UniProtKB/TrEMBL annotation:
It comes from the Eukaryota. One of its GO terms (biological process) is regulation of transcription by RNA polymerase II. GO terms for molecular function: cyclin-dependent protein serine/threonine kinase regulator activity. InterPro entries: Cyclin-like_sf, Cyclin/Ssn8. This is Cyclin-L2. It comes from Paraphaeosphaeria sporulosa.
Length: 288
């Protein structure tokens, strides 16, 4: 991945063309389903652990980076749930909101008992969810092993620049906050930045934060009806028309992809462990 001190490392063309999972025989559509489910799981676990969205976003980018390219991690060797937990745990260690292994393990154990990733009201706090000592010790070892694998695969480069602050700065530069619906625009723009984290097109791995923020503002302005300058204002923020168009299409496509995934799986569990993936691939080969 290319990188600089002022920007995120971006995935190369070669890294986007294949992955360690595909080299190990995982079909691309199945890999996309598992990555998408793993990203949703990471988001849900971060919320349960009461982490700021910025920390969750960093963990999501680390999670996605891990699978990129032929030298990246493979779902045949490490399950998406294990990598999700390790990405979140490792990211919090570098933040002002570190979480203990037990808290992370409990959160994932709690989520595994739910029919969906939206906890119903009145459920106990994940920190108090019971995991037997033997199970905890086993899962802690697996958590540490996955953490080491992530660090090795990414070359210990865990820095993630996020577009949230840029988004607000750009809105200020565009003098949007004088508009009565400015708060709604800002809220919608941030929502698009969160949506981009789940993109099967890996938008956070292919575009810099400045472009992501610009595209989010463009869409939010269209939806709220707030008029932007009559010039190609996005170029001021280092985004050309072609890139803006690609990102707009990518952001708008996430919702339809999510709907397709729900229809595709129809309540069946998406394989989040190595064992579940093996069973799914055997089932798929029998169906063929």
């Amino acid at each position: 991945m290319q990188s600089s001190s002022l920007a995120n490392p971006l995935a190369t063309v070669a890294q986007l063309e294949t992955s360690g999972s595909q080299l190990d025989g995982v079909p691309p559509d199945l890999e996309n389903s598992i990555r998408f489910a793993g990203a949703q799981l990471t988001q849900a676990a971060g919320i349960l652990l009461r982490l700021p969205q910025e920390v969750i976003a960093q963990a999501l980018v680390v999670f996605m980076r891990f699978w990129a390219g032929g030298e990246g991690g493979s779902l045949v060797e490490l399950g998406a749930e294990q990598v999700s937990a390790a990405s979140l745990y490792t990211t919090t260690k570098l933040s002002a909101w570190p979480k203990s292994p037990r808290s992370v393990i409990n959160a994932y154990a709690y989520l595994s008992t739910l029919p969906s990733l939206s906890p119903p009201p009145g459920q106990p706090r994940p920190e108090t969810y019971y995991v037997s000592e033997g199970t905890y010790q086993t899962r802690r070892t697996l958590l540490f092993q996955a953490e080491q694998r992530i660090l090795q695969t990414l070359g210990f480069h865990l820095h993630v620049s996020l577009p949230y602050t840029l988004c607000i700065t750009y809105l200020q530069a565009l003098d949007v906050f004088s508009h009565p619906r400015a708060a709604e625009l800002a809220k919608r723009a941030v929502a698009y930045l969160n949506t981009a984290l789940l993109s099967p097109q890996l938008l956070y791995l292919t575009h810099q934060p400045s472009s992501l923020a610009t595209a989010a503002i463009y869409l939010a302005a269209k939806e709220t009806g707030i008029k932007m300058p009559d010039v190609e204002w996005w170029e001021v923020f280092d985004t050309d028309r072609e890139e803006l168009g690609f990102l707009v299409v990518g952001l708008l496509s996430v919702e339809s992809f999510a709907e397709q995934e729900r229809a595709k799986w129809q309540g069946r569990k998406i394989p989040m462990t190595v064992e579940e993936l093996d069973a799914e691939m055997k089932r798929g080969s029998r169906d063929d």
